[in-house]
Amino acid sequence: MQPKFSPFETSLWYATAAPAPETGPLSGDEKADVCVVGGGYTGLTTALELAKAGVEVVLLEGREVGYGGSGRNAGHCTPTFTHYSLDELRRMLGEPWASRLIARQTRANDKVSAYIRDYVIDCEWVQNGYVMGALHPGQLADIEAKVQSYNAVGARTRMLDRDEVARVTGSQRYYGGWLHEEAGHLNPLGYARGLARAAMQEGARLYTRCEAAGCEPAGGRWKVRTAGGSVTADKVIFATGAYTVAGWPKLDESFKIQKVFVAATRPLSPAARLSVLPRNTTMHDGRGDIFVYKYNAEGRIVASMFPMGRRGADIEFTKRVLSDRLKWLHPQIEEPVEWDYLWFGELDMQYRTVPRLYDLAPGVVALTGLSGRGVPTGSMLGGVLSEWALGTSTNDLALRPEPLHRAPLYMNYGPPLTLRYYRVHDWFRSRMSGAALPPHA
After folding, report:
1. Tens digit of each residue's pLDDT (9 = 90 or more) over 177-213
2. Which of 383, 384, 20 is nearest to 195 (CA)?
3. pLDDT the model gives residue 137
4. Which residues of the chain fall short of a pLDDT of 70?
5. How high is the pLDDT of residue 141?
6. pLDDT value at residue 372
């Protein structure tokens, strides 16, 4: 059973993020052109884009800005897709939808960078790239295919050979790697709070600690009710992701939850920092059962993994797994690895691992299913949702609107079984190639 920790108590980001703008709950009845429900990246960027366009917009957040996945993630900002290749997405989504979504996602870091620059957001942003390593030779062909497919759509990526990946990462374990030069990392809660400040600066009205309790027709418009009041608007957008709890019937059944945990070490010594990720990149060890890590501004390693069995349930064992993996990859770390922070989050998983735009009623939509690509994906989705609210034809959007439907039953066990499959698959391929196995593999 996963421990029930509050991110306020155990998250590095809550200890270090720049303060949130002053907000409070809604009291009374208000009117707007658009009501956005959800104060994560998707909702905040939607409100920001609409306010910039002169639209009167109110945003309602049940807890505080960035309370959900936008404030709990590991801070990686890599504008890619998970699980499926670009060709697989084209076959699955069809055209022109696939090409539109691929274009938005692969250029999403342009949006992130522009928001941070234009609104002077204090969030530890660095854009030093992302490396996916190859822990056995059999991965090199897959990585070469990634280089070709992503470069074909305008991304700046390249293959690293064994010597270069060692120079970039400080690890001798990798046979090669994929460098995505446009990727970055940041303090995700600081970024969410900065987006909130930017939206308010542009004229959006933000209310926190006021959960949407329902949404019903009101004289040709829509009324979103909260405990302290209501917002009557022409259009309503639900952008609550994995933390959907109320507001529209059965919206929380449109995805399945995948748990994730993130941990942060004490700052590494200056000597260790010279040889561990010396270029301050984000690092993915390349295994399907992922281990992803990078630095924060203080020189702490911030690492994330998925819970599996005892890992994630037993906190001391979990920290040992993290330490063993990090030191296996970087045996030059001579000092003890101490984990000062460890917290949990939730992903709203879809079997396609891409967002789903649901047409709930005339003038009401919802978006769920970011599936773990929160920072870049949430940042670009504000453009998609604001275009919908501004009247762009649904045939011209980057996401095809669809009726609300329940996530397939196999999603109850699909994600954890997939992780176990990846673990066995990686073990088998490593053994067959003679590559060393990481601890706890």
Report:
1. 999 999 999 999 999 999 999 999 999 999 999 999 9
2. 20
3. 95
4. 1-9
5. 95
6. 76
- In our burial notation (b when 16+ CB lie closer than 10 A, e otherwise), range 157-177 reads bebbeeebbbebbbbebbbbb
Q: What is the pLDDT of residue 418?
A: 87
Q: How far apart are CA 36 and CA 40, in angstroms?
A: 11
**Do both 180 and 292 map to the same domain?**
yes
Tokens of 391: 């009247």
My answer on whether 329 and 286 are in the same domain is yes
CATH code, 333 = 3.30.9.10
Domain co-membership, 26 together with 162:
no
377 lies in a domain?
yes
- CA distance linking residue 25 with residue 11, whole number of Å: 24
Same domain, 172 and 35: no
User: Is 87 among the domain residues?
Assistant: no
Residues 224 and 313 in one domain: no
**Paired tokens of 309:** 């069995």
Tell me the residue range of the domain where 333 lies: 128-184+257-348+414-433
On whether both 403 and 265 belong to a single domain, the answer is no
